[in-house]
Amino acid sequence: MDCIQKIFVIRRLPILPKKNFITFLVGKSIEQINERKYGLQRYLQTLASRQDILDNDSFQQFLKLKQPEQLIKEELFKENIIEQVQSPLKIKNQFEEIQDNQPKPQQVFVGKRDYQQQTSFIENQIEQAKNNSFEQPDNQQSSDIKQNQSNDDAELIAQMKTQLQEFYDQITEKDAIISNFNQKELETQEYYNQQIYEKQYRINELNGQVSQYQESYAELQKQYQDMQNYVEELKIKLQESQQYAQSLEQQFNEQQNLISQQMASIGYENLNQTQLSQIIIEQQKKIDQQIQTDRERELEFKHELEKHYIVEAQRDELFQENQLLKDQLEEELQQRNEQTEAIEQLKLEMEYLQMQLKEKQELLDIKNELS
Predict the structure, then answer these.
(1) Are 164 and 290 in a shared domain?
(2) CA 146, chain centre distance (Å)
(3) First to last CA, the chain
(4) Which ranges of the sequence are coiled-coil (predicted)?
(5) Is residue 96 part of a domain?
(6) Are residues 44 and 157 in the same domain?
(7) Residues 226 and 359 reside in one and the same domain
């Protein structure tokens, strides 16, 4: 009994932790778990077979058999060794009747040799039964030991079943935890996939906007360059107009000097009033024409100057818009870089989740093997 208890202590599984079940399973190898599982099953089968033998009706009837001496006698006569003979006295009477030639009904002839053999066999069996009768207390003690051992084995089986049921309950509990964790992981993965899809869609939109901004920026750069060229042309025309105005002023001064010289050379005394008036009118007309031309050129110059101012204002506006576009592009590029970093972070998190899912799948495989 003590040996059985020691064996049970050695073969007993450790009490599994309720909280850190996953850590416990990961710390153990699959071979160790299978070895404990199969060893436990074999031991339970052995105990169950012992219990079945102890609970068997044949074994219980064997324990309740009659005394050995009476049992041997009954078994001997059941084998028909001597038919219809109940005692040695009757055998002797029958033998005497045969000697006297006085046959009787239901006579059975038994030879002397057979009789001696049967008698000696019976005596030997009776003697053996007597000897066995002294061993009856030992058999009774052995029966008590077996009965106690049977009770202990039944108790051990009940304890093993209880521990196995607790083990299966823990597996079921951890099963629910793993299932809940897997559900949360699926929801998290769907959320991350949705976030990645939205970020990718936003990045595609930003890429389209950046392309549009780049095209607009290139067009504005071209317009700005055209405006710069036009301003340079206006500056050249302004310089030409200034030079032309200076030349006109110089010509006017020369004509004034020429008129003065002519009037001085001719003299007022030699000219009559009509001729003098005619000369003055002609000179006045030339002066008016020159003034009109100068005014027209001045108006044209003012108009060109206004255009130049307008172009300068447009250039400033384009420059400001260009600066705003540059700022927007830089901001969009910064956001794009941040989103790229966020996507990379999400990818790393997804890889980490996939590794966790792989580990959980291995744990589920271990659990399936245990169940």
Answers:
(1) no
(2) 56
(3) 32
(4) 203-265, 315-363
(5) no
(6) yes
(7) yes
205 and 140 fall within a common domain: no
Where are the alpha helices (H) located in 56-135, listed in sequence order?
57-63, 68-78, 88-99, 112-134
Within 8 A by CB and 6+ apart from 367, the residues are: 25, 171, 174, 175, 178
* Domain count along the chain: 2
Cβ atoms within 10 A of the Cβ of 230, count? 14
The DSSP secondary structure of 162-208, one letter per residue, reads HHHHHHHHHHHHHHHHHHHHHHHHHHHHHHHHHHHHHHHHHHHHHHH
- Residue 8 to residue 5: CA distance in whole angstroms: 5
- Which two three-digit tokens encode residue 258? 């020429």
Q: 316 with 198, same domain?
A: yes
Residue 359 is part of which domain span?
192-262+285-370
176 shares a domain with 200: no
37 and 80 share a domain?
yes
CATH number at residue 233: 1.10.287
Shared domain for 163 and 201, answered yes or no, is no
Residue 269 is classified by DSSP as T
pLDDT tens, position by position, for the chain (371 residues)?
Answer: 444 444 444 444 444 444 444 445 444 555 666 666 677 777 677 766 666 666 666 656 655 655 555 555 555 554 444 444 444 555 556 556 655 554 444 433 344 444 455 455 555 655 665 555 444 445 555 566 666 666 776 777 777 777 777 766 776 777 777 777 778 777 877 877 787 788 778 778 877 777 777 787 778 778 778 877 877 887 787 788 778 777 777 877 776 677 666 656 655 445 556 666 677 777 778 777 877 887 787 788 778 778 777 877 877 787 787 788 778 878 877 887 887 787 788 778 778 877 877 887 777 777 777 76
What is the four-CA torsion angle of 235, 238, 243, 244, rounded to 10 degrees? Answer: 140
